[in-house]
């Protein structure tokens, strides 16, 4: 028997590629079949059953070039997409041609009682100017940014062109508007997008107003002009992880050192935090135990701001967590007019007016969209506007807007006359946001399935009104501020001992 062929013998031909593949698959099948049957398809924990694996296998087979067998492992199959492969969504106008999306914003039709007659010609002109810019330059792009939870920096030049930053501040490049004019501007921005309005309010009504009201002349000259041009962006840091409604109890500390202050602490929910150039930070002076204010510049050593993810509302607003570790602030950047929380409340009184107007604008936009949609969208051979139940909802929305506007208008007039109280501002903010919740919910119902698409504004507004209902004082806290004012009894803080009607907190 010959074990080895002679050297002169020709070598056998190499096996073909197809034969190698078939042999490999045969061996693979033998290995798989040798495993226990329960482990072949059924996985433990959160794995898929046989049906799920078969679905992935079919998709894998579709993705493979013809003639090439599938050799992907189960883990590779599991990581593959299970929905439409690489097909972009239709443009909303093509997918749903029966109604116009919010990228083309509708005409304003929400002033049923002719409330514009209460405004001066200058206010009417300003309102129309802001409305035009928002409809032409912001409405076409804002939805895609809301979906991505990114800020639309491309709109800043358009906001800057309006020359509205600084609101009621006079001089330093600021417009010196009346409080009513300032509120109308906010409402018109919110009519198209609440996130953009929140951005502007944080920048203007909080950061700039604090410097304008409580900063010294040198600080005003140094910071306000560039903020007024939107060349620099500001934010305002009061809220902390442990102190939201109880903001006056904040833990961030300011320690006096030679030539300045060292700030240590953490802030949360700070709008514009991730990209702001300057931040007004509130901290507790360790010497006096009182609240002081400081201007912190972006890039200061020890200062770090990160974005809060996964919000369902105001997704464009870049709310952040701020951590400060031995952040040195020179004496020249301490806001000399802030020596207690009562000074901080001077700014909050003005900003609460603005926040009371924000839901007015949101509801105006929702109503305008719904009015147009009900005229365009047809079912059962007639426009949706022809149905009685839809008309009732539309009228209820319209009534809410008239009442909200009147309450906001009166609040501004009381502020201008020096008669507004904190309880009145809180009532207006609480009541308007409550009515706004009802109004956008009605709008969501009127749009049916399209009411959950941000393309038609209402779904976006439905989500956006939730944080507005909560920030600048929750609905409940604002009602208790008003309740304290009308009854003379403070009920915001619980009993320090935790005793309620004979029971301690641990016994409840």
Structure description:
This protein has 508 residues and is an alpha+beta fold. The protein has 16 helices and twelve strands. Strands 3, 4, 5, 6, 7, 8, 9 and 10 form an eight-stranded mixed β-sheet that branches. Strands 1-2 form a two-stranded antiparallel sheet. Strands 11-12 form a two-stranded antiparallel sheet. Helix 10 (194-214) packs antiparallel against helix 12, helix 12 runs antiparallel to helix 13 (388-416) and helix 13 (388-416) runs antiparallel to helix 14. It is globular, with a radius of gyration of 31 Å. It starts with 16 loop residues before the first helix and ends in a 21-residue tail after the last helix. Mean pLDDT is 88; it is low at 1-10, 36-46 and 500-508.
Would you spell out the secondary-structure blueprint of this structure?
Elements: H1 17-34, H2 37-41, H3 50-63, H4 74-78, H5 92-95, H6 121-138, H7 142-148, H8 156-161, E1 170-171, E2 174-175, H9 179-192, H10 194-214, H11 217-228, E3 234-237, E4 253-257, E5 260-270, E6 278-285, E7 291-297, E8 303-307, E9 320-330, E10 334-335, H12 341-376, E11 378-379, E12 382-383, H13 388-416, H14 422-446, H15 458-470, H16 475-487
Helix pairs in contact: 6-9, 9-10, 9-12, 10-11, 10-12, 12-13, 12-14, 12-15, 13-14, 14-15, 14-16
């Amino acid at each position: 028997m010959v074990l080895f062929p002679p050297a002169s013998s020709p070598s056998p031909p190499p096996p073909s590629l197809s034969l190698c593949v078939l042999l490999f698959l045969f061996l693979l099948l033998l290995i798989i079949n040798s495993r226990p049957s329960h482990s072949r398809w059924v996985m433990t924990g959160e794995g898929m059953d046989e049906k799920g694996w078969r679905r992935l296998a079919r998709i894998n087979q579709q993705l493979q070039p013809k003639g090439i067998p599938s050799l992907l492992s189960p883990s590779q199959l599991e990581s593959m997409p299970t929905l439409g492969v690489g097909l972009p969504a239709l443009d909303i106008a093509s997918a749903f041609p029966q109604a116009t999306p919010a990228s083309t914003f509708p005409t304003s039709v929400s002033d049923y009682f002719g409330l514009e007659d209460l405004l001066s010609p200058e206010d009417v002109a300003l309102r129309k100017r802001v409305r035009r810019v928002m409809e032409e330059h912001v409405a076409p792009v804002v939805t895609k940014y809301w979906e991505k939870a990114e800020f639309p920096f491309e709109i800043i030049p358009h906001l800057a062109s309006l020359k509205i930053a600084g609101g009621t501040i006079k001089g330093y490049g600021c417009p010196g508007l009346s409080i009513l004019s300032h509120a109308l501007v906010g409402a018109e921005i919110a009519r198209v997008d609440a996130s953009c309005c929140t951005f502007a309010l944080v920048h203007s009504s909080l950061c700039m107003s604090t410097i304008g009201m409580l900063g010294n002349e040198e600080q005003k000259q140094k910071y306000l002009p560039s903020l007024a041009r939107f060349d620099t962006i500001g934010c305002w840091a009061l809220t902390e992880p442990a102190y939201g409604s109880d903001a006056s109890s904040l833990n961030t500390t300011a320690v006096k050192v030679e030539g300045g202050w060292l700030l240590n602490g953490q802030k949360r929910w700070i709008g514009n935090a991730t990209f702001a150039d300057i931040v007004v930070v509130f901290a507790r002076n360790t010497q006096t135990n009182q609240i002081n204010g400081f201007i912190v510049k972006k890039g200061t050593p020890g200062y770090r701001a990160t974005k809060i993810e996964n919000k369902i509302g105001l997704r464009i607003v870049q709310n952040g967590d701020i951590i400060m570790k031995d952040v040195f602030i020179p004496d020249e950047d301490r806001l000399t007019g802030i020596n207690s929380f009562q000074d901080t409340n001077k700014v909050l009184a003005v900003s609460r007016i603005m926040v009371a107007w924000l839901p007015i604008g949101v509801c105006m936009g929702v109503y305008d969209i719904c009015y147009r949609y009900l005229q365009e969208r047809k079912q059962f051979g007639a426009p949706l506007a022809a149905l009685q139940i839809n008309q009732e909802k539309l009228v209820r929305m319209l009534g809410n807007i008239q009442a909200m506007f009147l309450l906001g208008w009166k609040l501004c007039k009381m502020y201008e006359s020096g008669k507004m109280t904190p309880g009145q501002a809180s009532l207006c903010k609480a009541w308007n946001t409550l009515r706004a919740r009802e109004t956008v919910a009605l709008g969501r119902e009127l749009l049916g399935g399209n009411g959950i698409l941000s393309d038609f504004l209402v779904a976006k507004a439905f989500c956006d009104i939730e944080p507005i209902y909560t920030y600048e004082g929750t609905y409940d806290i604002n009602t208790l501020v008003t309740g304290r004012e009308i009854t003379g009894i403070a009920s915001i803080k619980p009993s320090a001992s935790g005793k309620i009607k004979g029971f301690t907190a641990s016994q409840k």
